[in-house]
Specification:
With 503 residues, the protein is α/β, with parallel strands linked by helices. The protein folds into two domains: 236 residues, Aldehyde Dehydrogenase, Chain A, domain 1 (3-Layer(aba) Sandwich); 186 residues, 3-Layer(aba) Sandwich (Aldehyde Dehydrogenase, Chain A, domain 2). It contains 15 helices and 19 strands. The mean pLDDT is 97.
Length: 503
């Protein structure tokens, strides 16, 4: 019988108030039932929020360096269990073992970085305009953070959000993706274990709460509940707009990390073999299920045909299969619904004027693959910038190839979408590289690198329809999880008035 998992509220593992559960299955083998997870409702969220608000009173008073010590231990535990976490993550969401190890390592890196930030939550001092007066500023925690995360990076992305929230002194209510609840449960178990190790008798229940369930139920309560002060969300643009609209009306602080339609440019002076490695990794790593995936390939006309021939040869050698098996390059789509979405876009591409289906474009169901949601790596050539497959996020192993005449046109094509997350250019011309850095409209630009591969200590996020201006990762995320407090200390012994004409 499948194991039943629970929510984690106020320091206690417990069933959802509904008493209902949903299945979690391996996308590479639908017969593999991983477990049953709570189908929570509004009451579970309300209980978790109440616990988090009560815990905030004490957690904010724990010195930030000690909050950082908790995350140091989290990183240590994750490092010790990295292979185990990665194996189970591959089983749950499909990407190959090397990638889930990388996902876990990203969480480890983020833990250690956040731990050190506990000693670097710097304020600023500024000279006063008045005599015998001192001006200071401090970062202070905000309150309860509602964390809503996607399934494609079920360890890394929650750590990007939860770790800074905690080290800044906020408490957390965490709603993971419905498709990856086990990895989220593992993360919460590790954090709670670290808290008990570090805090001992000072352990505070309710600092971190986990509520499983559907977005339209649990997520909506995050928006409606006045006890949640800020929301950090990574997911679809459609849902992001809904969160921004409702959260804005309630004056919640909201951070959105949304879609992408990323492109790799390859100029005629580029290292072709390097650019080939990059587009294979960028387009078909994680089965194309990344917000930073290379969805468009913009090739200079002089090298277009040669590059396509080599790319086709390489793509046909990619091996599909269960990501925990050796030698597998590409795992399944996360679900049958996602595979159907990918296929619907392929059908759109086949019906668009001039676009040519070069390879793929169909389910892969040979042998053991018939038990999973596999889709063959797909390439369209003769794509123009206005086609839907060149404009809309597909979130699958589908690459649209567009020909360009020069650098200016390449950048113009790259910018011609509603998104602006990641970008890449391959060139050996330093002037072209810096022109691309200046003119590409994206939050991330790689020179001679794939569009995927963020580092934990750098800002992560995009422009235009990709988000609302906040960043994850690096030092910048700590601005989202703190408020600034200005403090004026007057030791003149008399009432001095700023904002009055003292001149």
């Amino acid at each position: 019988m499948a194991k039943k998992y629970q929510n984690f509220i106020n320091g206690v593992w417990k069933d959802a108030s509904t008493g209902k559960f949903s299945e979690n299955r391996n996308p590479a083998d639908k017969d593999d039932l991983i477990g049953l997870f709570p189908s929570s409702d509004e009451n579970d969220v309300r209980e978790a929020v109440a616990a988090a608000r009560e815990a905030f009173k004490k957690w904010r008073l724990i010195p930030a360096p000690k909050r950082g010590d908790v995350l140091k231990v989290v990183g240590d535990i994750m490092l010790e269990k990295k292979d185990e976490i990665a194996f189970e993550m591959t089983r749950e969401m499909g990407k190959v073992f090397a990638e889930t190890k990388g996902d876990t390592q990203e969480g480890i890196d983020t833990a250690y970085y956040a731990a050190s930030e506990g000693r670097r939550l710097f304020g600023y001092n500024a000279p006063s305009e008045l005599k015998n007066k001192m001006n200071l500023s401090f970062r202070i925690p905000i309150g309860v953070a509602g964390i809503i995360t996607p399934w494609n990076f079920p360890m890394a992305i929650p750590t990007w959000k939860i770790f800074p929230a905690l080290v800044c002194g906020n408490t957390v209510v965490f709603k993971p993706a419905e498709l990856t609840p086990k990895t989220a449960t593992t993360l919460v178990e590790i954090i709670d274990e670290a808290m008990k190790q570090v805090l001992g008798n000072e352990y505070i229940p309710g600092v971190l709460n986990l509520v499983h369930g559907k977005g339209r139920v649990v997520g909506e309560e995050f928006l409606a509940n006045p006890g949640i002060d800020l929301i950090s969300f990574t997911g679809s643009t459609e849902v992001g707009r809904r969160i921004n609209e409702v959260g804005g009306k309630m004056l919640k602080r909201v951070s959105l990390e949304l879609g992408g339609k990323n492109a790799q440019i390859v100029m005629n002076d580029a290292n072709i073999d390097l650019a080939l490695d990059a587009v294979l990794w960028g387009a078909f790593g994680t089965t194309g299920q990344r917000c930073t995936a290379t969805s468009r390939l913009i090739l200079h006309k002089d090298i277009h045909d040669k590059f396509i021939d080599k790319l086709l040869e390489r793509v046909k050698k990619l091996k599909l299969g269960y990501g925990n098996d050796k030698g597998v390059d590409v795992g399944p789509c996360i679900s049958e619904a996602q595979r159907n979405t990918v296929h619907s876009y392929v059908e759109i591409g086949k019906n668009e004027d001039r676009a040519t289906l070069l390879t793929g474009g169909e389910f892969s169901a040979e042998g053991n693959l018939s038990k999973g949601w596999f889709y063959k790596p797909t390439i369209f050539t003769n794509v123009t910038r206005n086609m839907r497959i060149a404009k809309e996020e597909i979130f699958g192993p589908v690459l649209a190839v567009i020909k360009c005449n020069n650098l200016e046109e390449a950048i113009d094509i790259l910018n011609d979408t509603e998104y602006g997350l990641s970008s890449s250019i391959f060139t050996n011309n330093v002037n072209d590289a810096f022109t691309a850095v200046r003119d590409i409209q994206a939050g991330i630009t790689y020179i001679n690198g794939a569009t995927i591969g963020a580092e934990a200590h750098m800002p992560f996020g995009g422009v235009k329809g990709t988000g609302n201006g906040h960043r994850e990762g690096g030092w910048t995320v700590y601005d989202f999880y703190t408020e600034w407090k200005a403090v004026y200390i007057d030791y003149s012994g008399k009432l001095q008035r700023a904002q009055i004409d003292n001149y």
